[in-house]
Amino acid sequence: MATTVPKTMKALVKTKEGSSFEYKNVPVPEPKDDEVLLKVDAISVCGSDISLYMWNEVARVIATVPFIPGHECAGTVVKCGPKADIAVGTKVGVENHYFCGNCYQCKNDCREICKNMGQFGHGKKTEHGACSEYTIVSAKYLYQLTRNLNADQIAMLEPLGVAHNAVERLDVKGEDALIIGCGPVGLLAGMVAKAEGAKRLIGADIDPNRLELAKKVGFDVTVNTKERDLKEFVMEFTEGDGFGRVCECSGAPVMVNASFSLLRKGGTMVMVGLPKQPLHVENVLQDIGKLYAITI
Q1: What average pLDDT does the chain have?
Q2: How far apart are CA 85 and CA 66, in angstroms?
Q3: Omega of the bond prior to 66 within 30 degrees of 0, cis?
Q4: Using one digit for the tens of pLDDT, what is the confidence trace for 47-88?
Q5: Euclidean distance between CA atoms 150 and 45, whole angstroms
Q6: Where is the Alcohol dehydrogenase-like N-terminal domain (predicted)?
Q7: 275 and 256 in a common domain
Q8: pTM above threshold 0.70
Q9: Which residue, 82, 90, 286, 293, has fewest beta-carbon neighbours within 10 Å?
Q10: Residue 231 in contact with residue 257, Cβ under 8 Å?
Q11: Are residues 223 and 174 part of one domain?
């Protein structure tokens, strides 16, 4: 299938540290070796993209300038390097974690925390990202989709993968589950938990709009933590036991620290939203359980 590719394209570019992106014309890159040129069909905006724009403390850890932002995307293959084994016209999703395949983490099915990881859209071992009309990705980091998903759905596969990774560790089947933080990943985690057989799904947040959306996507109970003390609610709801399954998606230090005391003794908590301040466990002996931190 012949595709005409222009010489230049529009792109957002992070050219320097500080609060800025530049919207400019840049050359369309040429795929080499096993690289593939994609026409970007859709992107979704992650909270980290806002950090990259602001160039805050988080951005200084996760990114290296210069780069084109955008790591959650859908694309169509329009041109291939000589070693890329994929057909022009293929609809794909992008694996934004550029894993090495050789370190301990990669060899033990933890490629998303590869010791030598690069990252698409963050300037880590690649300057390319999805906030552009075209982008370059190695063929090994592309997902060829077997289901008939549209571009918007494909672009959401990355945050959905984060949510699934978290819920998979919770083992929610037949259990009540508490989701703290009903942003995009929290809502997706709730939807995955329902699909995995959670008994009752409870969502906690301070934003009434997010809580309303949580109800629409299948949460059974919601609680506004600006209006109700969460620990008081949890102990009343669970008759003093706490939840056996807690998924912390807010990353807010006050909520993360409070989460331990909401956990049933011997229960399981997954932290998806990672705080930027030290954690404090109020009562180690009482709050003891299983804890997983999902890095994204």
Answers
A1: 92
A2: 29
A3: yes
A4: 899 999 999 988 998 999 999 999 999 999 999 999 999 999
A5: 17
A6: 33-145
A7: yes
A8: yes
A9: 82
A10: no
A11: yes
Estimate the crossing angle of helix 184-195 against helix 208-216, to 10 degrees.
20
In terms of domains, do 134 and 107 share one? yes
Question: DSSP state, 34?
Answer: T
Q: How far apart are the first and last CA of the chain?
A: 36
Examine the domain organization and report whether 118 and 196 are in the same domain.
Answer: no
Q: Is 166 helix (H, G, I), strand (E, B) or coil?
A: helix
Contact 38, 144 (CB under 8 A): no
Q: For residue 233, which amino acid is it?
A: F
| Both tokens assigned to 15 | 């050219």
Q: What does the H/E/C string look like for 220-283?
A: CEEEECCCCCHHHHHHHHCCCCCEEEEEECCCCHHHHHHHHHHEEEEEEEEECCCCCCCCCCCC
Please tell me whether residues 151 and 172 are part of one structural domain: no
pLDDT value at position 278? Answer: 77
Q: Do 289 and 271 contact (CB within 8 A), yes or no?
A: no
Q: What's the CA gap between 249 and 180, in Å, rounded?
A: 6
What span, in angstroms and rounded, lies between the C-alpha atoms of 158 and 49?
14
Q: Are residues 100 and 237 in the same domain?
A: no
Contacts of 179 (CB under 8 A, 6+ apart): 186, 189, 190, 193, 201, 202, 203, 204, 214, 219, 247, 249
Domain of residue 12, residue span: 8-155
Place of tokens 């077997």: 146
Last residue of a domain, one of 120, 155, 190: 155
Helices 184-195 and 157-170 meet at what angle, rounded to 10? 50
